[in-house]
Amino acid sequence: MDEVRVQQEPFDAAAEIAALRAGNPRIGAVVSFLGLMRDLNEGEPVATMTLEHYPGMTERSLEAIVAEARARWDLEGVRVVHRVGTLRPEEPIVLVAVASRHRGEAFRACEFVIDWLKTRAPFWKKETTATGDRWVAHRAADAEAEARWGIDPRP
Amino acid sequence: MIRLRYFASLRERLGVDEESLALPPGVADVATLRSALRERGGAWAEALAETRPVLCAVNQAMARPGDAVADGDEVAFFPPVTGG
Asked: CB-based contact (8 Å) between B23 and chain A?
């Protein structure tokens, strides 16, 4: 079963993966990506991070990304959990977990989902540092990572 | 009327998170709406300048400059996304 969730509370990655694969003996592989908050960005220590999103559109865009992954690969389940609100270093920000019968599809689909999420899902990070707050800049590398998966009709 | 929403750094620059607006004359798509908002001057002209990488969503789906905007739509402007 697929599930996408946006939440303030921390999540338990192991419990999410267990739920993803529960009761489905066709699953032979689960690949997961866990994105974590770092204590350093662009050379400056970061104390906390606040994630803002666009409620409604966020869930719709994550569902669309999962649907695209399912159209490209034969998958048994996809789960995306993304936190919003205030986070501290070492805390998980996002989990993408993909289940499939064989490992190849889960590996590729997991990387695809996080690459598309990074450039398409409406989340914005603001960091608090010793010198004040700053919005995290979009990384050109994220656009390049997205582009590897091919052209799609988007601006 | 359309419902306009602004997020993240754009919201802070403009000092507003949402507003209702009667569709200005001549506005039929994202590009003409953005141009009409720029005409408010000041922070609007600067934050929505053509050189700035501003994204737009119409009814909660990513939109291109040529995509239509009509009465009753929810239109959002925001900077490039940085989640994950």
From this structure: no
